[in-house]
Amino acid sequence: MSDLFDLSGRVALVTGGGRGIGRAIAVELANAGAAVVPSARSTDEIEAVADEIEANGGDALAVSADVTDPDAVTSAIDRAEAEFGNVDVVVNNAGFNPADALGRPEDVSTESFDRVLDVNLNGAYEVTTAAADSLLESDGGSVINVASVGGLVGLPRQHPYVASKHGLVGLTKSMSMDWAPDVRVNAIAPGYVATELTTGLQENEELRQSIIDRTPLERFAEPEEIAGPAVFLASDAASYVTGSVLAVDGGWTSR
Ligand code: NAD
């Protein structure tokens, strides 16, 4: 294979990198040669991911940070730069869709709405801008925002999540223009992925089946299936790709 997908010499920070999609992306970026900084609020899971990467011969540093805490984010970027010299790739994957933000607009509190926007949208903005100097100095600067099919279409009873993911798509497009040609900025829009975030959907047989029926590939994705597209977007294989939103949804949005 040619070295188009080789990430040797690059350093990638992955928020929410301790489990689910973030963990899979962190592991595959490392498999492609990047030094990886998995980050999340608590340390247990990200340390396990860093250990796994190092056990496979890669370089990793677990750094805890809440993406809604600007000081913690700045210090996480500082630690990554101190350890590896630079941050070339930022994967904004941290996100959530809590029960108190599900429902009709008149039934969801402003506090719940704000909290979802704070993590899913403002958090990505905070991390990306904190890494701006590093990204702009890099020869391979790349930002990958993990959005959702909810960033492309509306979903009932999920308006905070959908607003946050549409915002993330808008941020992707605008930042891609401001930072071209130095840093590429793209988004991935996963469909339904088998992670803790979708446990409720997977365990409700009726809902699970309705999602499968609506998905041309007839199943949920595994987290690893979102990681390949992330490696692609981080790599020189995507050297002419910026401002794009890559749907990785089993065909869900093609209907
Ligand atoms: P997950 O719940 O397994 O993982 C989410 C990660 O984000 C966790 O590591 C968590 O600790 C971290 N996180 C949450 N809030 C944080 C904060 N304030 N600061 C730092 N880290 C924080 O969920 P997942 O399914 O792996 O989701 C990852 C991303 O993919 C999310 O942005 C989610 O919206 C998106 N997504 C998931 C699906 C799906 O079906 N699972 C579909 C589309 C998009």
From TrEMBL:
Segments forming a coiled coil: none
Keyword Signal: no
Broad EC category: oxidoreductase
GO MF assignments: glucose 1-dehydrogenase [NAD(P)+] activity; quinone binding
SMART domains associated with the record: PKS_KR
Pfam families associated with the record: adh_short_C2 (PF13561)
Ketoreductase domain residues: 10-182
Entry keyword ATP-binding: no
One biological process term in Gene Ontology: fatty acid biosynthetic process
Domain of life, source organism: Archaea
Entries under InterPro entries matching the protein: KR_dom, NAD(P)-bd_dom_sf, Sc_DH/Rdtase_CS, SDR_fam
Keyword terms of this UniProt record: Oxidoreductase
Enzyme Commission number(s) of this protein: 1.1.1.47
Protein family membership: Belongs to the short-chain dehydrogenases/reductases (SDR) family.
Official protein name in the record: Glucose 1-dehydrogenase
Organism: Natronorubrum aibiense
